[in-house]
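User: Teach me something about this protein's shape.
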Amino acid sequence: MSTVKIGRAIIGERNPVYIVAEIGINHNGSLDIARQLIDLALAAGCNAVKFQKRTVDVVYTEEELSRARENPFGATNGDLKRGLEFGLEQFQEIDRYCREKGIDWFASCWDEASVDFIDQFDVPCYKIASASLTDDALLKHTRNKGKPIILATGMSTMEQVFHAVEVLGRQDLVILHSCSTYPAYYDELNLRVIPVLAHQFGIPVGYSGHETGIPSSVAAVALGASVIERHITLDRSMWGSDQSASLGPSGLEHLVRDIRLVELSMGDGAKRLLPREVPVMEKLRRVDSRERYY
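Assistant: First, the predicted structure itself:
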């Protein structure tokens, strides 16, 4: 299986899992909350934080933007979308803050102009959201930036995943298995897809989770996930559509801890007698004269 280098990390094979804290729109339009979420990811031991970037008038139709929707920014869906969208000054501060703190950051870009916008910050990779998996023009435009790509595969068939991989090519590509329900039910997660994707494509495969707990994300690591991405929040009761499908400070801390413990526990697959087992064996086992210790 191939590996992919993102920032200082090597993803794939038996390298440490690359843990991404998805901030997304959980900053609620506040740069101060964004900084607090970056700090949360750092404190928990995450490798990266991820944001989202959209050109609102391109991604959404005029009809969708004019739809009535009461929110903190106004009375329409357009007011909400524009209120949650960070611009140049905010992303300049995010870039400065993450570089100062020593944590990777990147974004899922929903249109070509957003890819160009994020490109000015020399991010280590790009994320293609599940909703964009069938957008060939966006896939090609993102690939032309020459950076590694993380491709989410929620709400997609295997045939659509094969097509997206064909468009992108397998070089410097990571695939994330995902279920695009918010929050996802455990019986929807289908984690056994992870080794299937790894076998089919021979590239690093990860998991982007939208469930409320952490056991399934930890189990994904045991099944071979090289990347784990989870939404994070300061408080799951905060206003916002993604908050309930996110991990709070305690949940994120426990997730990172448990992933690292599972990594440590996996070993190398070679069965052997451990030195610390020898005194236990000598105490408890009836020794056959033919037994040999190695």
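Now, about its shape. DSSP finds twelve helices and twelve strands in the chain. The domain at 4-269 is CATH 3.20.20.70 (TIM Barrel). If you'd like, I can walk through any region in more detail.
User: That's plenty for now, thanks!
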